[in-house]
């Protein structure tokens, strides 16, 4: 009997049973009519970003074939893919059409989906081909995102425009009545370099990722990718340092660091602290306030910004505060010859406060039920992050398409502690690595070894996350309960240049 039918007979709503039984439900749902059916196309486009000629880029567009029209929300004036809005429990089918001139595949960063729907690079489809995703939205409310994941081309494709946000809602979140509609701002942070003709400039542009074209870019090209590619123009949701007209009210700001490599230490110019209500894995148990918010590539933050008491006419700037570049570390003996290095102070966006008033929202003391329990007897795996011979390694290994080591094999639904140990290599070379696990969100148990790092004061280890920043010299312990979906999944550094260089590995979830 199908799990779904069984649950119906028992009078259990499939949604209520999701947390523990996602894998069983999935096997039954593929044949059923999806609640939402989308067509997602990746294709070249030209979008005006700077004054003058438009920028040639690659982008996602989407169309609702079945289900609520509100599932697809284009971001106005942005090259980013549309926001996709799902409700927990929905069965989703996405027909991905690759109209790019090279292979690609879509990954739903943050979503707990079956192996076939996860966008592993070995599933990449050729130019002109299609790929159909079937999955159920088992995640709780929160912000995720989608981006390409083809072998050694993720960084290039993402840099050239391929990314979009995903928002999931559920009854727990809806009951809070958080600011929505005009009260919700989507801030996807990216940096880019442009040439004189307004076209994107990327490391060894057009030659493919590291390894494909060898050392074609010469020593400096290699240095650029080892450090991660940094732009000198800051974009928020596809617009260069935008000015946004806002009212005197509370906003919910949904942050995504969609940059290839840059790490932001966010601050508001009017000195107000961030009221953080959630991150990668959804709402916190309780709100948290802090002056700075460190956001590494791949990470999201859910923030309340109350402008009710800010005088009309004020400009509130979203900034990245200055920090010394060696807080991120470096991979080379040479100073990084980039126009805007790590840690440079940045102006990202300006919120221009009008005289209009809108609703003030004060978050309740309890935002969500926190289900986290520290495991007492989970196996501990030490995962060294190292540098040697001009490359980055995870536990001494580099990416191999199908390979999995014994310590990278786990049983469905089992709980493990992984300890990412960022170990300085020869001549103290180490860099901050945002380590990401596909599928389930995890909890940070501890971090040691980088107490004085200036990025630390913007880091919080509250809530569920899928991407954790591991600073140079730091050891970060996380507790993860792996998905119920069996198969081959990825974990990697979300500095996309590091990922494409091979700082990525498979893990395999075996059936119970
Ligand atoms: Cu954004 Cu493999 O991830
Ligand atoms: Cu991911
Ligand atoms: Cu890295």
Number of helical segments with 4 or more residues: 6
Number of domain units = 3
Share in helix:
under 10%
The CATH homology group name of the largest domain: Cupredoxins -  blue copper proteins
Which ligands, by name, code or SMILES, are bound?
CU-O-CU linkage, copper (II) ion
Set out the fold topology.
Elements: H1 3-10, H2 18-29, E1 36-47, E2 55-66, E3 72-73, E4 83-87, E5 91-98, E6 106-109, E7 130-136, E8 142-148, H3 154-159, E9 164-169, H4 171-174, E10 184-194, E11 200-201, H5 218-227, E12 233-236, E13 239-240, E14 243-248, E15 250-257, E16 264-268, E17 274-279, E18 282-290, E19 293-295, E20 300-306, E21 315-320, E22 329-330, E23 346-357, E24 380-388, E25 391-394, E26 409-411, E27 415-422, E28 430-431, E29 433-437, E30 442-448, E31 467-470, E32 475-481, E33 487-493, H6 496-501, E34 504-510
Parallel strand pairs: 1-5, 4-9, 10-15, 14-23, 24-27, 26-34
Antiparallel strand pairs: 1-2, 3-4, 5-7, 6-8, 8-9, 10-11, 10-12, 12-13, 15-20, 16-19, 16-21, 17-18, 17-20, 21-23, 22-28, 24-25, 27-32, 29-31, 29-33, 30-32, 33-34
One copper (II) ion binds at residues 392, 431, 433, 493, 495, 498, 503.
Structure description:
This protein has 512 residues and is mostly beta strands. The protein folds into 3 domains: 170 residues, Immunoglobulin-like (Sandwich), CATH 2.60.40; 177 residues, Immunoglobulin-like; 131 residues, Immunoglobulin-like (Sandwich). It contains 6 helices and 34 strands. The strands form 7 sheets. Strands 10, 11, 12, 13, 15, 17, 18 and 20 form an 8-stranded mixed β-sheet that branches. Strands 3-4-9-8-6 form a 5-stranded mixed β-sheet. A hairpin with a 2-residue loop joins strand 17 and strand 18. The radius of gyration is 22 Å and the shape is globular. The N terminus is likely disordered. CU-O-CU linkage binds next to strand 6 and strand 33.
């Amino acid at each position: 009997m199908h799990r779904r039918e069984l649950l119906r007979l028992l009078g259990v709503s499939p949604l209520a049973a999701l947390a523990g039984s996602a894998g069983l439900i999935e096997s039954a749902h593929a044949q059923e009519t999806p609640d939402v059916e989308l067509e997602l196309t990746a294709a070249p486009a030209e979008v005006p970003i700077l004054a003058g000629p438009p920028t040639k880029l690659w982008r996602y567009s989407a169309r609702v074939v079945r289900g609520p029209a509100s599932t697809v929300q284009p971001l106005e004036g942005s090259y980013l893919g549309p926001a996709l809005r799902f409700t927990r429990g929905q069965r989703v089918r996405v027909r991905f059409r690759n109209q790019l001139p090279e292979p690609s595949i879509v990954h739903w960063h943050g979503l707990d989906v079956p192996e076939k729907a996860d966008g592993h690079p070995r599933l990449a489809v050729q130019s002109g081909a299609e790929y159909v995703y079937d999955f159920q939205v088992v995640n709780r409310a929160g912000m995720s995102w989608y981006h390409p994941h083809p072998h050694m081309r993720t960084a290039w494709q993402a840099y050239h425009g391929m990314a979009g946000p995903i928002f999931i809602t559920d009854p727990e979140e809806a009951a809070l009545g958080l600011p929505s509609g005009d009260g919700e701002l989507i801030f996807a942070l990216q940096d880019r370099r442009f040439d004189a003709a307004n076209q994107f400039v990327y490391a060894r542009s057009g030659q493919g990722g590291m390894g494909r074209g060898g050392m074609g870019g010469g020593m400096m090209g290699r240095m650029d990718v080892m450090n991660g590619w940094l732009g000198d123009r800051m974009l928020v949701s596809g617009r260069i340092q935008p000015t946004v007209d806002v009212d005197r009210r509370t906003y919910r700001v949904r942050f995504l660091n969609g940059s290839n490599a840059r790490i932001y230490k966010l601050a508001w110019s009017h000195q107000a602290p961030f009221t953080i209500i959630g991150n990668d894995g959804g709402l916190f148990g309780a709100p948290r306030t802090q002056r700075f918010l460190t956001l590494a590539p791949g990470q999201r933050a859910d923030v309340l910004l109350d402008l009710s008491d800010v005088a009309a006419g004020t400009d509130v700037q979203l900034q990245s505060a200055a920090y010394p570049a060696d807080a991120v570390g470096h991979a080379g003996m040479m100073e990084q010859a980039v126009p805007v290095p790590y840690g440079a102070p940045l102006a990202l966006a300006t919120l221009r406060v009008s005289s209009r008033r809108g609703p003030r929202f004060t978050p309740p003391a309890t935002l969500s039920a926190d289900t986290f329990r520290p495991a007492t007897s989970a196996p501990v795996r030490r995962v060294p992050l190292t540098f040697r011979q001009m490359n980055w390694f995870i536990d001494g290994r580099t990416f191999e398409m199908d390979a999995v080591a014994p310590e990278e094999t786990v049983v469905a639904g089992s709980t493990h502690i992984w300890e990412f140990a960022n170990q300085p290599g020869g001549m103290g070379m180490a860099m901050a690595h945002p380590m990401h696990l596909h599928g389930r969100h995890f909890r940070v148990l501890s971090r040691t070894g980088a107490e004085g790092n200036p990025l630390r004061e913007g880091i919080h280890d509250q809530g569920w996350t899928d991407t954790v920043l591991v600073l140079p010299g730091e050891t970060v312990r996380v507790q993860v309960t792996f998905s119920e979906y069996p198969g081959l999944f990825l974990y990697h550094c979300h500095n996309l240049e590091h990922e494409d260089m091979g700082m990525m590995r498979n893990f395999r979830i075996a059936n119970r």
